[in-house]
Design a protein that fits this description.
187 residues, alpha/beta, five-stranded parallel sheet, globular
Length: 187
């Protein structure tokens, strides 16, 4: 049984570094070998601030951008959110995307790769977990926290992880695989 993992780049701002971190994590997840890894970039969906007239639980989407996003979310068995920290929280682009759909998220696990300055995005990750549980997503404890991320991006725009990032990625993927198998039985 092939399990699909969506690695979601959550920042959409110009000049962002999330795609470099997400590219590294996708490569690590492919190397892990337990998932069919799909990179997903919120910037490519270009979701406006939530504009559906019906509550998302009804799944009566009026806009193509919502239907496209819903199909992407639904296709995944698990998620990894690659997120920066904006003012001690997740970026608005991520919160907006989470709010667009509901049932498509339900009973799936999620890991978090957070990045930032000295905190490594930990505050954003903690706040994100509260939102995820409301969507019936199971945020796992294992995570990748990247401090001082800008110092790990080279002149070729490539993120170079340190050993602790590699170990954390493996631990998170191992645990995510267990939860993905278990939660699939609920869907």
């Amino acid at each position: 049984m092939t399990l699909q993992l969506h690695v979601i780049t959550c920042s959409t701002r110009p000049g962002r570094i999330g795609p470099y971190v997400a590219k590294w994590f996708c490569e690590a997840a492919v190397q892990h070998g337990k998932f069919d890894v799909v990179p997903v970039d919120l910037a490519q969906f270009n979701l406006p601030i939530y504009n559906e007239p019906e509550h998302p639980v009804r799944q009566q989407y009026q806009h193509d951008h919502t239907r496209d996003w819903a199909a992407s979310v639904c296709a995944a068995d698990a998620y990894v959110f690659v997120t920066p920290e904006y003012n001690f929280g997740p970026p608005p682009s991520l919160l907006n995307a989470l709010n667009y759909v509901y049932r498509e998220w339900n009973y799936k696990p999620a890991g978090i790769v957070s990045y930032g300055g000295v905190s490594g995005g930990l505050r954003a990750a903690q706040i994100l977990k509260q939102t995820l549980t409301t969507l019936k997503i199971m945020p796992i404890v294992e995570a990748v926290t990247i401090q001082h991320v800008a110092t790990l991006i080279d002149e070729n725009k490539r993120f170079t992880p340190i050993d602790s990032h590699l170990r954390a990625a493996t631990a998170m993927l191992d645990e995510l695989y267990k939860w993905t198998q278990a939660l699939k039985t609920l869907r």
